[in-house]
Amino acid sequence: MATTIWHNPACGTSRTVLEAIRAAGIEPVVVEYKREPPGREALAAAIEAAGLTPREAMRKKEGAALLADPGLDDSALLDAMAADPALIERPFVFTPAGVRLCRPAERVKEILPG
């Protein structure tokens, strides 16, 4: 399994995480998830593998109205994120050691070698 980052180059945290991966001697597969959004199934799998709920994986600012609606279940939130990748919190990093939503950026260290 190659190391992969769902990256947003406009995001400082995402850039910091990408730099940390490269500093560890790894050249990751960089997926600009807003340009190449993950499908709903891939998104659901990433969220589950990271030990999160869809509510925890949604950007707070962009998803504020959705998050404020207690009537929306996980399925509805996944549908919303799949339809609008700007709602997905970033960056997700995938390595052989696991999947993390690297916010704060230091979380990437949990799944990098050494």
Automatic annotation (TrEMBL):
Q: Print the keywords alphabetically.
A: Arsenical resistance, Oxidoreductase
Supply the CDD domains for this chain. Answer: ArsC_ArsC (cd03034)
InterPro entries xrefs: Arsenate_reductase (IPR006659), Arsenate_reductase-like (IPR006660), Thioredoxin-like_sf (IPR036249)
Specify whether Acyltransferase is a keyword of the entry: no
Q: Which reaction does it catalyse?
A: [glutaredoxin]-dithiol + arsenate + glutathione + H(+) = glutathionyl-S-S-[glutaredoxin] + arsenite + H2O
> A single Gene Ontology molecular function, please?
arsenate reductase (glutaredoxin) activity
Q: Which SUPFAM superfamilies match?
A: Thioredoxin-like
- E.C. number, please? 1.20.4.1
Q: Which Pfam families match?
A: ArsC (PF03960)
Q: Which domain of life is it from?
A: Bacteria
Q: Which PANTHER family match?
A: ARSENATE REDUCTASE, ARSENATE REDUCTASE-RELATED
Q: In which family does this protein belong, per the annotation? A: Belongs to the ArsC family.
The name on file for this protein is: Arsenate reductase
